[in-house]
Each structure stands twice: as C-alpha cells, then as structure tokens.
C-alpha cells in the first residue's frame, strides 16, 4: 500500500530497549486498575493532555480499538493524524509496543505485539481506557490470571513470619500483621523514623529471629553449589563492587519472575508504605527444592551466587540466613519515587539500640535503569562517623548505579547508605545479610547454651518451658528472650488449633490468657518480684483451687539457684535439656502450691 506507514529500522534499533521498558511501565500503570476496582480507567494518566488527545483521535477515527489488526494501524488517516502530533505529543514518534488485544497482557501476545509511534499508542490506549476495554470484567480476568485459583494469596502464620504467602511462588510478603511478628529482616538503626521508637523490624532483628534461621556460610555454599566468585570482605568502610557477578540472561529471568510475582501480589504487597523506605519486600527461601516455584526457580542462579559470595568472604564465623530479601522499588507505582533514606543495616556501636546480627550486606542488582530513566543509585557515605545519621561527616559520597549482575558488598555496621529516589522504572535487587553472633549475646542465655539451631527442633510446649526459664534468668530490660519470643509465636499459632486439650506440664489444661498459657504469666510475675512484697497469681489460673502467693526474696534466691542448676544440667545433658526444664518447672509449681 503506497500510503502505509513503514517502520524506520534505525528507530527500531535505538528504541528497542526503551520500548520494552515503556511497555513494562504502561502495564504497571494498568495494574492499578486490576488491583483496585474503584479506580476509573480514565484516571490513569498517559500523557499531559489525555482528554484532548482522545478527542482528537475520535474526531478522525471511529473504529473499535479493543482488538486491532496491523493493517488498521497503517492507513492514510492515521498517517495524517500522526503528522499533526509532531510538537504536540512528547516523543511522538518513539517506537512503542502496542498490544493487539486489549484484553490480553503483553506476555499473553508476546509474538504479535505491534511496534507503533508513541502518539498512535497513546491515542489507542486512551480510547481503550475510555471505552470500556478495562472494565470490571477485564479486571476480574486479569486478577484471575495473576493469581491462579490453586495459589491464592493467603494470610499464614509460621513460626517465623506472619506473612502473605503465595503458594505458587514460595516467596513471602511481609507487612500484613506487623503488630505481632512481621520480621522483614530490615532492622535499621539510624533511620529517619527516630531513634527512640523501635520498629517491628528492629524488634524482630533484636529478638534474633535471623540468627535462629541461618547456617554457617560454608554450609550454605555446599547446599547451593556455584563457582567461586570475586567476593571479598569489604574493609575500610567502603563498599566492594563486582560487575558481571551474574550473567545477563539469569538476571533478566530473575527480574521478570520477580516483577510477575510482585504484580501478582498487587496492592496487597505491603500493608502500609513506610516513611523511610518505599520498596516492596518479599522473602525468598535460599535453600530447598525449586520445583513448583517459578519464582524460586528463576532466582536459582542469583541465590546460588549470593550463598557462594557469602562463603567467599572467608570468615568462618559468618552465618547465612535461610531467606534472601527480594526488593522492588517500583517507580511506576502511584507516581511515587520510592527510595530508602540514609541508614545503616546494623547499629554502628555494639550494644546500641536497634543492634542486630548483620555483619556484611550483599546486594545483587537484577536490573539497572533503562535508557531515559534515572534514580535508584545506592548512595554510600564513605567514612561517615559512627554517630552520623545523614552523611554530613562523610569523606566521600559515591553513587553506585544498579546494573544487572552487579554485586555490592559492604560492612553492615559501618556503611551509611541510602537508595536514591527511583524514577520511572522498576528496580529489582536481591539482598542477603551475613550474620555474626554477638559475643555474650545479651538476648538469650539459653541460646548460648543450646545454640540457636535448637529452636528449630523444639515444639511449642518445649519452647514455652524454655521461655519460662529464660525469663527467670534472662535480661529483662531488653524485652523478651529469643525463646520467649519464639514460644509466644508458636503458642499464638496453636491457639486456633487447640483451644482446649493442651496440657501443661503439671497436667492442667492450659488456660489461655491473652493467647499465652497463664502459667507463663505466673512465671513472669514471679520473675518480676521486687524487694517489695506483693500478691500474685491470676486466680483463675488454677481454677477452683485459686490461690495466691506472697513473694519473698528468699524464693527468688531459690529460683535463681534452681535456674543455675538447670543451666548446668542443660549444658551437660545436651539434648535431654527439655526433660530437665520440665522437672524444673514442675518443681517450681509444686513449691508454689506448698507455700500456699
Ligand atoms: O537496594 C539497595 O541498593 C539497598 C537497599 C538497602 O539499603 C536495604 O534494604 O537495607
Ligand atoms: Fe540498607
């Protein structure tokens, strides 16, 4: 056809990557409609003057735009119309990908996408928005596609996190039930949120959840075989940057799977956008089978690389958590420019508020800013003083560009860093924090004795007993001990299952009081006994036999001796610790009754 518009090969060559990125951004915008039925389709802005552009289009062309054939796009009318757009529409002739069928995603019709000038794309998409192509039925269908019926997002409680879990992808989204146990493993010691107020994250980190769920790095590398990397221990407060740590193909696959995963989670990704950081976070198990999990499979090479890099740092004391963090800074979401304010991943001074176990931070970028997009640099304030929270004392400020396959390592306690606001692109990275036990860990004397791993093998009842013991000799001021926290979590999960019928060590039904068996509360009270005498013991705890108890210093002494004894027994008996703890608690309760 003589008046057909032909594609300019030069334009194609230059615009290929940009077109793909633009398509991704456009699809992300439409995702808002999928996630929220209340959003009118035409409220998604595509261009500065959408109404006018749409009117202009409909003044010339009356065809239906829901499903288009190639020849419909190359007519003389279109050519004239597009010629008028020069100077009126920004980037009017930029190569842009158009979906032939509005009902389907880019992926669904990957082979058949049209390459059209930007102005043409805009007019067609604006018409689709305004003419019902993205109506309720379309949204429902897209939702169904994103979330197969067999894999609904559901709220689950595990011993570790309270999470939204997508069964098909085995990644876990944090942030649904922040009040109880959200542990997004991102404790921040020096963020804008204020030093006084401890975040859920910080609390989770302080309680050592990460430490209870990790393996020595050599073991991690054994479990996830991968060739040696160039990773080395970062020193002198400066980050180590290694390019090409992961090949482009692996990055592209991982990135696409991550974006699909986050898109599938929709608005449920994160309950509330936090002020100091704008990313969406999911936790991906580092180890285990890949089958049945597209996301985990796609992240396989990245997970192996991180585990290997952790081992290559060469510090035998380093531990690798069982989960890596997948973070999306979605610059295409709600016109936000998400970033992360200046912070350190661990307290710069040992013992300071917010301290956790992070020693080395590993960041693996799965993509970089596409041409024309900007932001998202990792800003590092090298040499900033430990008390400096905003980088004023930095000797050097380096902006490290995210790039597919780029691995960055830095000392978690030392490097003050930020993520610069991300422009119109979707930045995807996988992070892993290598942990190190804190000498004389104030959090958990029992952990020192049993080892953090023990918590994985103890059932709720055992943990509760250990918790009770830990409370007796644990350091109160810092909050719950490790096992106390673990016990609470397991017990509250159990609550739904067994409202009755779970027996405490002395054969009584657990009386659930604020989700925790009341005998634990008795022990708390017991522990809290001060020099002043007081009455204690919830009357209902022992039902008909309700009794009270007058606390005395000498009993406190007695308990302390008993606890020391238990500690000793645990130490020498190893795995039989549980029995001894049982005996100890039984004894405590017996004593208490006798006293009465
Ligand atoms: O993604 C990055 O570049 C850094 C993210 C970060 O600082 C964090 O998650 O703690
Ligand atoms: Fe960080």
Automatic annotation (TrEMBL):
Any matching Pfam family: 2OG-FeII_Oxy_3
Record GO cellular component, one term: cytoplasm
GO molecular function: dioxygenase activity; iron ion binding; L-ascorbic acid binding; oxidoreductase activity, acting on paired donors, with incorporation or reduction of molecular oxygen
Record's keyword terms, sorted: Dioxygenase, Iron, Metal-binding, Oxidoreductase
UniProt superkingdom: Eukaryota
Named cofactor requirement(s): L-ascorbate
Lyase is among the record's keywords: no
InterPro entries for the chain: Oxoglu/Fe-dep_dioxygenase_dom, PBDC1-like_dom_sf, PBDC1_metazoa/fungi, Polysacc_synth_dom, Pro_4_hyd_alph, Pro_4_hyd_alph_FE2OG_OXY
Residue intervals of the Fe2OG dioxygenase domain: 320-436
This protein's name: Fe2OG dioxygenase domain-containing protein
Source organism of the structure: Pelagomonas calceolata
């Amino acid at each position: 056809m003589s008046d057909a518009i032909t594609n300019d090969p030069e334009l194609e060559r230059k615009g290929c990557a940009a077109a793909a990125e633009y398509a991704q951004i456009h699809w992300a915008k439409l995702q808002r409609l999928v996630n929220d039925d209340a959003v009118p389709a035409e409220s998604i802005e595509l261009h500065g003057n959408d109404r006018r552009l749409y009117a202009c289009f409909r003044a010339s062309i009356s065809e239906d735009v829901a499903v288009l054939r190639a020849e419909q796009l190359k007519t003389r009318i279109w050519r004239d119309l597009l010629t008028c757009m020069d100077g009126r529409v920004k980037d009017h002739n930029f190569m842009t990908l158009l979906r032939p069928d509005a009902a389907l995603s880019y992926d669904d019709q990957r082979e058949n996408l049209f390459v059209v000038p930007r102005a043409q794309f805009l007019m067609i998409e604006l018409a689709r928005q305004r003419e019902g192509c993205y109506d309720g039925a379309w949204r429902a269908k897209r939702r169904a596609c994103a979330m197969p019926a067999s894999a609904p997002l559901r709220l689950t409680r595990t011993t570790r996190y309270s999470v939204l879990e997508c069964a098909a992808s085995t990644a876990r989204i944090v942030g649904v039930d922040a009040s109880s146990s959200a542990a997004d493993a991102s404790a921040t010691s020096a963020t804008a949120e204020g030093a006084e107020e401890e975040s859920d994250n910080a609390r989770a980190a302080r309680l050592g959840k990460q430490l209870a769920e990790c393996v020595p790095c050599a073991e991690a590398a054994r479990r996830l075989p991968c060739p040696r990397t160039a990773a080395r221990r970062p020193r002198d407060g400066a980050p180590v940057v290694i390019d090409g740590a992961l090949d482009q193909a692996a990055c592209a696959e991982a990135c696409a799977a991550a974006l699909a995963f986050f898109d599938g989670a929709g608005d449920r990704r994160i309950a509330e956008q936090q002020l100091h950081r704008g990313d969406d976070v999911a936790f991906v198990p580092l180890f285990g089978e890949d089958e049945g999990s597209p996301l985990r499979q796609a992240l396989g090479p990245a997970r192996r690389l991180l585990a290997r890099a952790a081992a290559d740092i060469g510090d035998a004391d380093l531990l690798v958590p069982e989960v890596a963090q997948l973070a999306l800074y979605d610059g295409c979401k709600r016109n936000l420019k998400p970033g992360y304010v200046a912070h350190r991943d661990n307290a710069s001074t040992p013992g300071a508020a917010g301290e956790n176990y992070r020693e080395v931070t590993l960041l693996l970028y799965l993509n970089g800013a596409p041409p024309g997009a900007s932001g998202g640099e990792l800003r590092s304030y090298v040499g900033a003083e430990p008390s400096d929270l905003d980088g004023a004392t930095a000797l050097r400020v380096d902006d490290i560009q995210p790039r597919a396959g780029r691995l960055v390592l830095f000392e978690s306690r030392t490097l003050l860093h930020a993520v610069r606001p991300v422009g119109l692109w979707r930045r995807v990275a996988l992070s892993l924090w290598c942990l190190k036990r804190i000498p004389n860990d104030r959090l958990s004397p029992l952990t020192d004795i049993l080892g953090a791993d023990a918590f994985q093998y103890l059932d709720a009842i055992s943990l509760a007993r250990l918790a009770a013991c830990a409370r007796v000799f644990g350091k109160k001021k810092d909050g719950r001990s490790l096992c106390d926290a673990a016990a609470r979590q397991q017990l509250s999960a159990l609550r739904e299952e067994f409202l009755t019928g779970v027996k405490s060590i002395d054969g009584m039904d657990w009386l659930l009081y604020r989700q925790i068996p009341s005998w634990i509360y008795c022990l708390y009270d017991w522990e809290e006994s001060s020099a002043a005498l007081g009455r204690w013991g919830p009357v209902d705890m022992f039902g008909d036999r309700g009794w009270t108890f007058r606390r005395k210093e000498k009993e406190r002494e007695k308990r302390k001796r008993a606890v020391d004894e238990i500690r000793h027994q645990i130490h020498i008996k190893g795995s039989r610790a549980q029995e001894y703890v049982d005996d100890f608690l039984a004894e405590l309760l017996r004593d208490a009754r006798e006293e009465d």
